[in-house]
Amino acid sequence: MMKNFKYILITLFLVSLSLGGCSGSKNVTKESDPFENLNRHVFGFNKYVDQKLVNPLSKAYVRNIPNGARKSISNHLDWMELPVTIANSTFQFDLENTILASAKFMLNGLTLGFYDLDNGETEILKKDFGSTLAKLNVPEGPFLVVPFLGPKMTRDFSGYFVDRQNMTKVSSTTVNDINLIEIPINVIDTRSKLSNAIDKLYNSPDPYTKMKSYYIQNRRKNVYNEKYHNIKNKNKDEEFEKLLQ
Question: In sequence order, what are the residues at sequence separation of 6 or more whose Cβ sits closer than 8 angstroms to the Cβ of residue 56?
């Protein structure tokens, strides 16, 4: 009971930060980074952990695990995240995505997700509680860099806690134990797929600014889809894109 109470307090605090981080009725506004000094320190810490631990493990993973096996692991990790998409597609009244994600989850459940039985033909939009909050016009809030988790908008950070908590409640103890074990595997697998992009980021004149712009652009595109191109600050984001070149 006390654990749930603490979780509720954390979620309410983060949502209040999100609500207070922007003004106006638009849920997409000019990025807010009032915690930049702290964020830069946390970014430095995450970079150190990545370079000393995650990246070496990632390179060993690519070097020792065959490509086919890595693909199966990635498929399985994506399958394990489908219930989050199913739940949030339902919250957002996206019936088509809910049905497609549910069907794919059940179909690939025959292989525990290690093999994609529909060969990637089903196009599913990944959804989380951060995107559900965006659907409810909750502002993005300030930009954060979280230890180990990396960049997050405040709204998405609070949504992350809700997704994790909900999955813990609906899953069995065995599944939760598997999820806990697979967290470091997911980190290493993701790092291996983003190796070139991350190396380029670290070699840029201002890695923090480049990371922030890259994250914000991609997150907005994932959350708002085609609507992203019509939002108020499109021109500003196009300026940020130049930093990625």
Answer: none
State phi, psi for 231 to the nearest 5 degrees: -80, 165
End-to-end CA distance of the chain: 50
By the 10 Å C-beta count (0-12 exposed, 13-18 middle, 19+ buried), 228 is classed as: middle
Reported pTM:
0.75
Helix (H, G, I), strand (E, B), or coil: what is residue 151? strand
Mean pLDDT by 10 residues, the chain (245 residues): 47 51 45 89 96 94 93 90 92 95 93 88 90 92 93 91 69 54 84 91 94 92 69 51 48
- Structure-token match 């790092």, residue found: 191
Phi/psi for 146 (5° steps) reads: -100, 135
Whether residue 219 contacts residue 228, with contact meaning beta carbons closer than 8 Å, is answered with no
Q: Which amino acid, residue 157?
A: F
Residue 22's nearest CA partner among 127, 158, 137 is 137
Give one DSSP letter per residue of 7-65, joined into a string. Answer: HHHHHHHHHHHHHHT--SS-SS-S---TTHHHHHHHHHHHHHHIIIIIHHHHHHHHHHS
